[in-house]
């Protein structure tokens, strides 16, 4: 039997798919592509970045199906659909758009309708009597504008959401919860995912990397946020290990799990900023300003006069601004207890943040391959 996996070309998906193959499982990968050849090429590139190379890693245990989350029936051909239904007794759905600024209808087309397509395929598999489980990767930020303690199975619409990503992932969870009445579903909710805790490697320089990069460049140091606002950040290797461990256990079926740092591992903005300031000692320190005052008085003026690159900077900053003021706090009681039995625990960000920064600097924030840099290249040194 095989695992049907979506999102393999994304940051988390490539780690999950690569690890499944390393552990000896057969996988069927849904990959967007104009045709089968292009889909296979994209899968090869994705897995080659993460592991030892697609061909050496797979050894015939991976099947690529050209398709797309936004198309009816996931864009699968009749033949490919039948292969999935015959071969796959479990589903791992981590395909999604993670952009904060997409129009709501476009975000829904990927996150909501794509998930609907996966659930329909899983339901058909179940009707054939051979469905083992469906693991759905959501986000802890379905909690939206909440700033209190969020239990692992909370799904409250009242506080609202800060962007189309949060809203559509919330809507998707509602649909998944409804499907769980008939399907063996597990929901995984990671918080903010960053690079590997071991040496900082990442293929995604969004989320927390963007404001750090702006600060490191000397372009901007004003932070309209609260020093004591909490941040729940977890490294990609922990998220991968946690999801795969939860997926191995039958007692997780029907549950929702915060794959997050939780109360013991979260940090405040001020704690994270202090590490960043020490790493970039040649830059002036971060300047905190009251976010309410800033957004009511200064920000509108800047947007009115901005043009070109500065206008683009402000648009991007708008997407991140709410996370600098207040955030939910995630209860990880059940998840942490299960993971402890598996020998897995989220590391504190203080133990690896400098490695993330080092990797970002050495790769010029993803523009260069660190492994190909000459030993004397200045990008291998602290800036």
Explain what the structure shows:
This protein has a domain at 2-197 and 232-266 and 328-347: Rossmann fold (3-Layer(aba) Sandwich), CATH 3.40.50. It has helices spanning 11-22, 36-50, 54-58, 78-87, 104-127, 164-179, 209-216, 236-247, 262-265, 269-279, 291-305, 308-320, 333-341, 353-362; strands at residues 2-6, 26-31, 62-66, 88-93, 133-137, 149-150, 185-190, 192-194, 222-224, 230-231, 233-235, 256-259, 267-268, 287-289, 329-330. It is an alpha/beta fold and 383 residues long. The strands form five sheets. A seven-stranded parallel β-sheet has the order 3-2-1-4-5-7-12, sandwiched between helices. Residues 372-383 have low confidence and may be disordered. Helix 1 links the parallel strand 1 (2-6) and strand 2 (26-31). It is 43% helix and 15% strand. It contains 14 helices and 15 strands.
Question: What is the secondary structure topology, with strand pairs?
Answer:
Layout (H helix, E strand, L loop, with lengths): L1 E5 L4 H12 L3 E6 L4 H15 L3 H5 L3 E5 L11 H10 E6 L10 H24 L5 E5 L11 E2 L13 H16 L5 E6 L1 E3 L14 H8 L5 E3 L5 E2 L1 E3 H12 L8 E4 L2 H4 L1 E2 H11 L7 E3 L1 H15 L2 H13 L8 E2 L2 H9 L11 H10 L21
Parallel strand pairs: 1-2, 1-4, 2-3, 4-5, 5-7, 6-15, 7-12, 8-11, 9-14
Antiparallel strand pairs: 10-13
Helix pairs in contact: 1-8, 4-5, 5-6
